[in-house]
Design goal:
Bound molecules: NADP nicotinamide-adenine-dinucleotide phosphate
Structural class: alpha/beta
Strand order of the largest sheet: 3-2-1-4-5-6-7
CATH class: Alpha Beta
Shape: globular
CATH topology: Rossmann fold
Strand content: 15-25%
CATH superfamily: NAD(P)-binding Rossmann-like Domain
Radius of gyration: 17 Å
Number of helices: 9
Number of strands: 7
Distance between the termini: 55 Å
Order of helices and strands: EHEHEHEHEHHEHHHE
Number of domains: 1
Length: 252
């Protein structure tokens, strides 16, 4: 029987890959040799542009419009990724802060969406990975993108966002222990402030520069610096690393 080359290709799923940190993770992992399936919910033009820039038939980079809050979407994401090859990694990157406000002003709709995107969706994708990787014996990897907010609590800005990030770190630690016997690694990367569109979407485009004075290194992080940590965790340089949270936060 002829073996299909795509069965051998190592594929990584990256959620929220169309801009900011996720886009850098897509580029870096694709550069490192992985085929990529990345998702987004809205930014169609950016998705097409990114896929067009990176995709080659023998080295795929494919975008998928897949709102993280859609029930059962994790199954469609994995189904699509498996058409590209052997899924070896999941990076749960998609995240939203909601508009900057005190908790008292947070509406129910925003509250539900923040929890759905930042916590429920990554949990479902982790669960899908645990199910799909039942028969894998070689190493697989889940990397959840947290935030320095998990440690600061982000008072007066977005405490619910911060709470979801703390929860995703706890999930990563527990799930790592649960899945270690199956050679599935689970880690989190916790960025400090990075100058991406997330701050404008929260209502303060200049936030990264404003908070820079509180960062020991005196500057926001670059998306590439977060992608470096993800690339290391998924690589064969990190074969004994699981259940950890890597702070990439300029000293915070
Ligand atoms: N930037 C920072 O300062 C910072 C600091 C710490 C942690 N982080 C974390 O790093 C991750 C990336 O942040 P970023 O700053 O790069 O954000 P960003 O620039 O706003 O990008 C977010 C990405 O997620 C996608 N996305 C948003 N909602 C989605 C949904 N419902 N379903 C699917 N995809 C969705 C967006 O595409 P669509 O708009 O098309 O959906 C976009 O590709 C997040 O988890 C964030 O919490 C960021």
């Amino acid at each position: 029987m002829t073996e299909n080359i795509s069965d051998k290709r190592a594929v990584v799923i990256v959620t929220g890959g169309t801009r900011g940190i996720g886009k850098c993770i897509v580029k870096r992992l694709h550069d490192d040799g992985y085929a990529i399936l990345f998702t987004h919910s809205n930014s169609d033009a950016s998705a097409i542009e990114l896929a067009n820039a990176l995709h080659r038939p023998d080295h795929p980079c494919v975008g998928m419009k897949a709102n993280a809050t859609t029930l059962g979407i994790e199954k469609s994401i994995f189904d699509k990724a498996e058409t590209l090859g052997d899924v070896v990694g999941v990076v749960n990157n998609a995240g939203i802060t909601g508009t900057i406000s005190k908790l008292a002003a947070l509406e129910d709709e925003s509250l539900s969406k923040i929890v759905a995107v930042n916590l429920v969706a990554p949990i479902r994708l982790c669960r899908e990975a645990a199910r799909r990787w039942n028969d894998r014996s070689s190493r697989s990897s889940i990397i959840n993108i947290s935030s320095v907010a998990a440690r600061t609590g982000s008072p007066n800005e977005y405490v619910v966002y911060a709470a979801t990030k703390a929860a995703i770190e706890t999930l990563s630690i527990g799930l790592a222990k649960e899945l270690a016997p199956r050679n599935i690694h689970v880690n989190a990367v916790s960025p400090g402030t990075v100058d991406t569109d997330i701050h404008a979407l929260a209502g303060e485009p200049g936030r990264a520069q404003r908070v820079a004075k509180n960062i020991p290194m005196g500057r926001p992080g670059r998306p590439e610096e977060i992608a470096d940590a993800v690339a290391w965790l998924i690589s064969d340089q990190a074969t004994y690393v699981t259940g950890t949270v890597i702070n990439v936060a300029g000293g915070l």
